[in-house]
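Appendix B, Record 12. Input sequence as logged:
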Amino acid sequence: MSFEPHYSFKQFLAPRYYLTWICLFFAYLIARLPFKWQQKLGRSLGRSVYYFMPKRRHITLTNLRLCFPELSDQQRIHLAKESFGEVGLGAIEAAVTILGHPEKLANRVQVEGMPYVEAVLKQKRGIIIMGGHFASLELAGYLVAKLVPLHATYRPLKNKLIDYLVYKQRKSHFHGVIHRSDIRGMVAALKRGEAIWYAPDQDYGAKHSVFAPFFGIPTATVTGLSRLAKLSGAVVIPGFQFRVGEGYRFIGLPPLENFPSEDPMQDATQINEILERMIRMHPEQYLWQHRRFKTRPEGEKGVY
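Logged structural output:
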């Protein structure tokens, strides 16, 4: 599926892009601040957004109430603020990745589990890095791409100027760029012995999903990972990135066993168990701002 954007610089001089240019100018400056300043600024901006986005605040607190019933209201509020802070830092990291020099952060990464990846690459088999939507996602993708021939999945953005910059960044840093709905392209890359990143932790509706437990809650979980692994014969290796102090930690877990099985519910349950275990390690870094429990089993009322 061909989707490479074709834009001319002249079209970005239109008045509707003036505000975007101003934001990009400040993002460019921020991307060149010292690392510690970027961390403080990102988290401070994110925590302030908590007070100005009531809808996302409500979604976040609802998710935390469902997933962490053992916490008090004050503890969940504190965790929600920390989560917004991590998302704010993620925006700064995205600016560094797109407009700065992300290669300078490579020595801040601690990598665990690479032998699992290397063993599969030696077999010339494809690898699906099964991840999740954590706040450091944009930068982590760039860093992981330095370790394996990783393809980025991509969805075109509404703002054409931002779309151009993001696509250009991914085109230059990753082994390839594949539209997120291009299953044929993903399978072809995997059959060539390459790698893609796939996160099965967002709600895309009941179609092509099963209601598997996630934090003890029946949750619409896409079956796409099972189908992709079956079609390509690729090995699924869970891989997650976290911020630790003034650096980053990438954890590669052992390849999934007996995956895919003949039972989509069994596969989805295995996936969600791993995701939950990783989220509990650093719950403040997970993107609680999306409606993970939007789709409910038939007859069950909505939670948001």
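The chain has ten helices and nine strands.
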